[in-house]
């Protein structure tokens, strides 16, 4: 698919500038563009269609109802559904906490790593490891080894020190899940900030030192402004993945109260057991609309990432 | 971008040696804290089940649990089958991602189309669509076309997951290629394929490798699609790990061994390529 597109481009129009034709420029882009549209946009359009029906899984109900159009009933229902509102609120808390904390820790760790000390390479290797783990494994490790009231090492430690056990996951589901997310995403943020720190021109820093600037002054006046786009990028990429968090919730709580985010709620309403596909599609569409609004705001905010000059 | 020979920031004026040593020690403490859950899992994986559940160490350490999970046929999913499925799905999807992303990045960076900014935004915006919003239609059509429980359906979906990120990163690497080199190749009448092969790809190989690695990590670790569309014969490694959680009997040591086996390939690849990843993220991100 892509190979043929690549081959076609330069063979046509041997005369003049081979890149004068707009279509010749577009051609190499088309395979990827068509693929992404077909796989990500078409299902979404089908979802819009479902959202106006009362589609349910026929095998799951005792008295099967024929599928018919219900207009905007599904949408009207959303705004009277307290569980959906709760899931939205959980999503916001989970994403803001996890992205914010992992950015904070990631920046601190990157600053620690951006100086000379014994075993720096090994420290970096240890720190990035959690990001490389499967999210499912990360969640299982924390659930079974750390938080568990049966085998968990944290409660063993608390008991050893004379404290009572804490039922981490059942009493503090959101905090438990955020802990795992922060543990996994801090290394990612650290890598991005580290990349920013290492791309800082050294001569300016040296000049600042010669001029007798304090370390904190250098950080605030030179390093932080330089890091800003990197921090924004980390926040953007982190939010994209963390707002969709599914694995940690599925493994740790299976969506108990306080830990069901919007994706998990939609999942529960549809293929995860509710089988109310029509209604669940409406929820999904609302989520998409919210996501687009937030994404547009975020991307506009981060337009500094794209302010580079046009190459014609 | 980054100079591999550069070692940290210069000692600031007024910074005493004690502070410098202290910060080094702090970095070590932070690293040990962060790795502790993983280290503890490795430790548990060598214990017997009784020791693992009690968090004790009476019966010594051995590779026994690794043998158990590698040979276990509990359920229907063997390690060998899951590993083969994961390997095929991850490698094939990543190769196709590169095959699609490289020409697309060319059209967005070297000879950019007029609306390259909008197209780039579109690619990134697809990452904001919640997967759940499209999983049900995908499920319906996958079932209609007999793709449920096949590797093909996962390959297609993993391409869709990774393609936007890959295009974004590779585009930025392509922008780093000196203009004169491309123009020289064009004056010589080099075709697009040869331009890529002779000029652009050799210069951007490290960045493309970093991109491929990120795609491999995300695909290898993906669980949601695999769980929903692939519960039967084509299950992948994350599902194999979860299949080792048992409701009867102790499973902690076996689960730990399974977790280590499942994560090891990607962890080793990530360790080996960490410097390249930092480079890749800095260039890929912001140029």
Notes on the structure:
The complex is a heterodimer of chains A (312) and B (287). With 312 residues, chain A is mostly helical. Chain A has 15 helices and no strands. In chain A, helix 5 runs parallel beside helix 10 (173-198), helix 5 runs antiparallel to helix 12 (215-242) and helix 6 crosses helix 10 (173-198). The longest helix of chain A is centred in the first third of the chain and has 32 residues, at 82-113. Chain A is globular. The relative contact order of chain B is 0.14. Chain B has 13 helices and no strands. Residues 1-10 of chain B have low confidence and may be disordered. Classes of the chains: A mainly alpha (312), B mainly alpha (287). Chains A and B meet through helix 1, helix 2, helix 3, helix 5 and helix 6 of A and helix 1, helix 2, helix 4, helix 5 and helix 6 of B.
Structure keywords:
heterodimer; A: 312 residues; mainly alpha; 69% helix; globular; disordered C terminus; B: 287 residues; disordered N terminus
Chain-wise SSE layout:
The complex is a heterodimer of chains A (312) and B (287).
Chain A: H1 2-11, H2 22-26, H3 30-51, H4 73-78, H5 82-113, H6 120-132, H7 135-147, H8 153-160, H9 168-171, H10 173-198, H11 202-210, H12 215-242, H13 247-252, H14 262-269, H15 277-301
Helix pairs in contact in A: 3-15, 5-10, 5-12, 5-14, 6-10, 7-10, 10-12, 14-15
Chain B: H1 17-45, H2 49-54, H3 64-71, H4 79-109, H5 116-126, H6 131-144, H7 151-175, H8 179-187, H9 192-221, H10 224-229, H11 237-242, H12 252-272, H13 274-286
Helix pairs in contact in B: 1-12, 3-12, 4-7, 4-9, 5-7, 7-9, 7-13, 9-12, 9-13
């Amino acid at each position: 698919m892509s190979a043929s597109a690549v081959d076609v481009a330069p063979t046509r129009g041997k005369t003049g500038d081979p890149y004068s034709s707009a279509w010749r420029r577009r051609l190499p882009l088309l395979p990827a563009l068509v693929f992404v549209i077909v796989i990500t946009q078409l299902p979404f359009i089908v979802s819009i269609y479902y959202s106006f029906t009362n589609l349910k899984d026929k095998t799951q109900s005792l008295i099967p109802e024929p599928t018919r159009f219900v207009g905007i009933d599904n949408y009207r229902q959303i705004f009277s559904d307290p569980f959906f509102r709760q899931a939205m609120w959980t999503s916001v808390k989970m994403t803001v906490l996890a992205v914010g904390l992992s950015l904070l820790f990631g920046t601190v760790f990157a600053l620690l790593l951006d100086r000379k000390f014994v075993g720096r390479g090994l420290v970096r290797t240890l720190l990035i490891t959690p990001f490389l783990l499967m999210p499912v494994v990360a969640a299982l490790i924390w659930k079974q080894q750390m938080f568990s009231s049966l085998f968990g090492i944290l409660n063993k430690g608390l008991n050893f020190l004379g404290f009572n056990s804490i039922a981490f996951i059942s009493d503090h589901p959101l905090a438990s899940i955020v802990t795992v997310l922060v543990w996994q995403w801090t290394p990612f943020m650290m890598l991005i900030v580290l990349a920013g720190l290492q791309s800082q021109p050294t001569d300016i820093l040296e000049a600042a030192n010669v001029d007798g600037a304090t370390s904190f002054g250098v950080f605030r006046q030179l390093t932080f402004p330089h890091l800003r786009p990197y921090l924004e990028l980390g926040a953007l990429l982190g939010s994209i993945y963390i707002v969709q968090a599914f694995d940690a919730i599925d493994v740790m709580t299976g969506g108990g109260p306080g830990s069901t985010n919007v994706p998990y709620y939609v999942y529960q309403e549809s293929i995860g057991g509710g089988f109310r596909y029509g209604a669940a599609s409406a929820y999904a569409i609302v989520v998409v609309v919210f996501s687009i609004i937030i994404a547009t705001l975020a991307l506009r905010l981060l337009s500094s990432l794209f302010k580079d000059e046009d190459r014609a | 971008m980054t100079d591999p020979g550069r070692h940290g920031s210069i000692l600031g004026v007024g910074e005493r040696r004690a502070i410098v040593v202290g910060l080094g020690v702090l970095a070590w403490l932070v690293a040990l804290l962060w790795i502790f859950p993983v280290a503890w899992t490795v430790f548990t994986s060598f214990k017997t089940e009784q020791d693992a559940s009690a968090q004790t160490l009476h019966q010594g350490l051995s590779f026994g649990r690794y043998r158990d999970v590698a040979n276990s046929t509990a359920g229907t999913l063997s390690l060998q089958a899951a590993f083969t499925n994961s390997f095929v799905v991850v490698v094939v999807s990543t190769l196709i991602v590169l095959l699609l992303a490289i020409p697309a990045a060319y059209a967005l960076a070297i000879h950019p189309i007029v609306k390259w900014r909008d197209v780039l935004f579109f690619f990134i915006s697809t990452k904001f669509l919640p997967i759940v919003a499209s999983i049900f239609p995908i499920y319906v059509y996958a079932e209609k076309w007999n793709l449920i429980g096949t590797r093909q359906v996962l390959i297609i979906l993993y391409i869709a997951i990774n393609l936007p990120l890959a295009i974004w990163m590779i585009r930025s690497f392509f922008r780093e290629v000196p203009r004169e080199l491309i123009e020289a190749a064009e004056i010589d009448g080099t075709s697009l394929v040869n331009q890529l092969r002779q000029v652009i790809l050799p210069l951007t190989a490290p960045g493309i490798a970093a991109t491929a690695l990120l795609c491999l990590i995300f695909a290898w670790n993906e669980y949601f699609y695999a769980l929903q569309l692939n519960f039967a014969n084509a299950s992948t490694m994350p599902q194999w790990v979860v299949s080792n959680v048992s409701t009867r009997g102790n499973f902690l040591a076996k689960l730990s061994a399974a977790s280590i086996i499942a994560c090891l390939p990607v962890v080793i690849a990530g360790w080996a390529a960490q410097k390249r990843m930092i480079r890749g993220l800095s260039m890929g991100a912001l140029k």
